[in-house]
Amino acid sequence: MTWLYVTTFGIIGVSLRFLIDYLTINLKASFPWQTLIINLIGCFMAGIVFKHSGLHPSLKTGLLVGLCGGLTTFSALSLQTYALLDSGEVVSAIGYVLASQVLGLLAIYFGVFFGKMVF
Fold first, then answer.
1. How many CB atoms lie within 10 A of CB 7?
2. pTM for this one?
């Protein structure tokens, strides 16, 4: 049943991302406002779902992975960082955020380089 929740809410999350992006198209500027808005909405929703103890585990996974993950993977990064901080693992949380940002950016550069060579 979990996969059905993840798939269904994933479709909704991706659709919401597209809708928010479409509705905020006029905000395009030198700063990525659309992505920031999407990430903040996804993080807010993930926080609510994460702390809601009355949800069935399959539904909770569907909402977190499908809805929030489909909307933005940034919510997963933020939620995992929160979980590390909440359990007192401050150094791991800082390392995770730094590694995600630095290695993610490097992966983009390598992907662009590779893409230029192959295509």
1. 14
2. 0.78
